[in-house]
Amino acid sequence: MFKYLIARASRHLSTNVCQSAPLSDITKVWFTPLPKDAKWVAPLQMHYIENGMKKDRDIVKIFNGVMVVLFNVSRQKLIYVRQFRPAVYHGLITGNSFEMPKGCIDLVKYPPEIAVTLEPCAGVAELNKSPQESARDEILEECGYDVPTESLQLIYQYRSGVGASSAAQTLFYCEVCDEQKVNAGGGVHDEVIEVVDLSIEEAKEYVKTGATVSGGPSTLLATLWFLSNKA
Ligand SMILES: Nc1ncnc2c1ncn2[C@@H]1O[C@H](COP(=O)(O)OP(=O)(O)O[C@H]2O[C@H](CO)[C@@H](O)[C@H](O)[C@H]2O)[C@@H](O)[C@H]1O
């Protein structure tokens, strides 16, 4: 099944995405229950009375996010990032089951590459910054372009995961040129991120009807917005 998934994902990724070397060397994977002091998600339950009926809903609180449709006008390329996403890996391994995988994962059966996503530049909306400032910082850290916040054009504000998590997401468009490239990108601290450029033709191929994309809905949203408004 996973050979099928990889083959399917590869078929829908552009050539330069598929042919790059493995992103990193992941040698061991295992799962544990969420510790009580977890800082990135907070599960809780909401209760309410609707039309006289008590209802209970399970919710997972997560941080709000920002993301950017980044277009290099010098080279006429859309800029994305590739990264290993643990939540995607878990989802691919477990399917629709809530049972926690036991022991160490068989990395031959489930190669980590299956969970390397292609996404727009994105990150957490920092509490002490405006969405524009958070987006500018992500562009610099992940993709290596130094841009003023004024060059960020607001496209959409929407909510992701409305069934259980519902974080606010702010999507921007930003044009950059080669002169604004000040570092290689790739993330900060222990982040392992690869910057990937797609031509407009490659982006069209990536989101064609029937495609299975490796990124989240923001990858589709960002690319389709660009293709219908800027291409
Ligand atoms: N779940 C998690 N558990 C532990 N550490 C974590 C974590 N998510 C992020 N981090 C830490 O925060 C660092 C920076 O994350 P980013 O700001 O790039 O957010 P990311 O793109 O992962 O989006 C993330 O946050 C935005 C806003 O919630 C979501 O839209 C997106 O799906 C989500 O991956 C990561 O390298 C990691 O150290």
From TrEMBL:
GO biological process per UniProt: nucleoside phosphate metabolic process; ribose phosphate metabolic process
Keyword field contains Nuclease: no
Locations listed in the record: Cytoplasm
GO molecular function: metal ion binding; UDP-sugar diphosphatase activity
Domain Nudix hydrolase as annotated: residue spans: 61-228
Gene3D superfamilies, sorted: Nucleoside Triphosphate Pyrophosphohydrolase
Record GO cellular component, one term: cytoplasm
Cofactor list: Mg(2+)
Function: Hydrolyzes UDP-glucose to glucose 1-phosphate and UMP and ADP-ribose to ribose 5-phosphate and AMP. The physiological substrate is probably UDP-glucose. Poor activity on other substrates such as ADP-glucose, CDP-glucose, GDP-glucose and GDP-mannose.
Subunit structure, as described in the record: Homodimer.
Stated name of the protein: Uridine diphosphate glucose pyrophosphatase NUDT14
